[in-house]
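Progress note, sequence design subtask.
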């Protein structure tokens, strides 16, 4: 095999690989020799088919298989020979006519084009200063959690005859919805339960039943939201003929040992203990999330290196596709944006560059320091994923067993967290005590801010091995861009 570097331009590389016809012929001969003892042809006893006859019958088919194998193995060998690590799967283009190669009369030559992983000079992680927000749960947090449980377990008792319904009361109603005096599908129900103030019904519906009494008939007039799920109802005015069959008021729930038994605890003290543990876990999770976010910001600011253009373009395409889908779900178009589309694209391209930069950086830190995800850790993550689908656990396990890419997506955030922990051990972490509201304040931060995005997973199984399946990702900027706003009316 002969490998020639035909082009180098920044991170872009082009190789020409030539596999001699004699090497292909040797591989074909070996395969045909393997076949002779198992092949069955009419007129010949098993194992007695002449090799020349086998070649005549199957030679071209076997050569085609050999060529495919040769392209795969030779491309990997070419990368190893040149000590090159592609950022994405190389593009392979065969050169010349394929027929002479199939006939064994010409060498196999092909061109490989790809972008390489850039050289990354790490900053001194010991000099990084990362702020970590911390807070301690207060007794009021436990009481609040208990009260939320009680609210979810609330009981209702009938109100006195003739007593009007108020916010928080539970009504039992029959209703018939009409648009232009014509009943519409899905607008009818009997013995429906409605808690006034719950927000379960369309805007304006519940409020009009406040003050109603058992036995009352109320004409509720509403307008379906413009983005309502049923297109035939969206934006339409409707009238619901409602019959109030009963009115019940919430009855206080005693928070005691009997209450605790509803949740499987022997006594209230055990329930309080479990809630305390859960709340502390939530505080720790939020604290780590803030620390990780601050670390990603610091790493992004401390590193600058050339990015593989194709990786950035793929990442941008994925981000922009999500943005367009969000626009579509809100029934909005470019005319509704309050800033030029080109400016928004430029901002999202910066986000794409950040994601790729941080993804490559974390991958290199992991490789250089031999950070790996243990099979036990992966098995535990898979078990946790399966528990999210009660009754379908076996299907979940089978899905992951049959889909290597899905396993890679499961491994990626585990690997990333281990790299973050590694850097945190070296960096200077400064704890800042804050209130609970400050700890949970930022609505723009997603609960799992992993650099890896499972909806955008490139194939990296091609000639370089970072010891994991994750080389890029979804590192968000300090402030995530808000959804497009409605353009101001003139």
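Output:
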């Amino acid at each position: 095999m002969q490998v020639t570097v035909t082009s180098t331009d920044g991170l872009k590389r082009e190789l020409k690989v030539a596999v001699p016809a004699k090497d292909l012929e040797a591989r074909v001969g070996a395969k045909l020799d393997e076949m002779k003892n198992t092949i069955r042809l009419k007129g010949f006893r098993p194992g007695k088919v002449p090799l020349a006859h086998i070649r005549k019958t199957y030679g071209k088919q076997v050569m085609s298989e050999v060529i495919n194998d040769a392209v795969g193995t030779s491309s990997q060998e070419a990368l190893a020979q040149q000590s090159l690590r592609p950022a994405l799967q190389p593009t392979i283009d065969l050169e010349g006519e394929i027929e002479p190669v199939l006939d064994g009369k010409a060498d196999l030559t092909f061109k490989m084009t790809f972008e390489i992983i850039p050289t990354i000079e790490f900053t001194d992680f010991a000099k990084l200063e990362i702020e970590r927000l911390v807070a301690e749960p207060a007794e009021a947090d436990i009481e609040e959690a208990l009260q939320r449980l009680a609210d979810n377990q609330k009981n209702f008792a009938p109100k006195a005859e003739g007593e009007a319904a108020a916010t928080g009361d539970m009504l039992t109603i029959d209703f018939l919805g009409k648009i232009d005096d014509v009943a519409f599908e899905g607008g009818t129900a009997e013995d429906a339960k409605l808690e006034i103030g719950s927000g379960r019904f369309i805007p304006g519906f519940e409020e009009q039943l406040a003050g109603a009494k058992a036995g009352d008939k109320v004409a509720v007039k509403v307008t379906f939201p413009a983005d309502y799920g049923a297109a035939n109802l969206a934006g339409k005015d409707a009238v619901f003929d409602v019959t109030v069959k009963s009115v019940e008021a919430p009855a206080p729930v005693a928070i005691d040992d009997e209450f605790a038994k509803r949740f499987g605890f022997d006594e209230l003290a055990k329930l309080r203990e479990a809630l305390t543990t859960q709340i502390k876990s939530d505080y720790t999770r939020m604290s780590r999330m803030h620390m990780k976010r601050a670390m990603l910001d610091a790493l992004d600011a401390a590193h600058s290196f050339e990015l593989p253009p194709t990786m950035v373009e793929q990442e941008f395409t994925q981000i922009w596709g999500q943005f367009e889908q969000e626009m579509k779900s809100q029934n909005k178009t470019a005319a509704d944006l309050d800033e030029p589309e080109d400016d928004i694209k430029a901002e999202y391209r910066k986000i794409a560059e950040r994601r790729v930069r941080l993804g490559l950086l974390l991958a290199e830190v992991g490789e250089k320091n031999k950070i790996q995800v243990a099979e036990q850790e992966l098995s535990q993550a898979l078990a946790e994923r399966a528990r999210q689908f009660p009754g379908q656990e076996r299907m979940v396990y089978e899905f992951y067993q049959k889909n290597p890419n899905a396993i890679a997506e499961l491994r990626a955030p585990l690997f990333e967290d281990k790299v973050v922990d590694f850097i945190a051990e070296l960096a200077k972490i400064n704890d800042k005590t804050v209130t609970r509201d400050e700890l949970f304040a930022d609505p723009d931060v997603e609960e799992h801010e992993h650099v890896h995005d499972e909806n955008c997973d490139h194939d990296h199984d091609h000639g370089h091995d970072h010891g994991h399946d994750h080389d890029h990702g979804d590192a968000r900027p300090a402030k995530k861009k808000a959804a497009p706003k409605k353009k101001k009316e003139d």
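Confidence is low (pLDDT under 50) at residues 445-450, 452-490. Work on this subtask will continue into the next period as scheduled.
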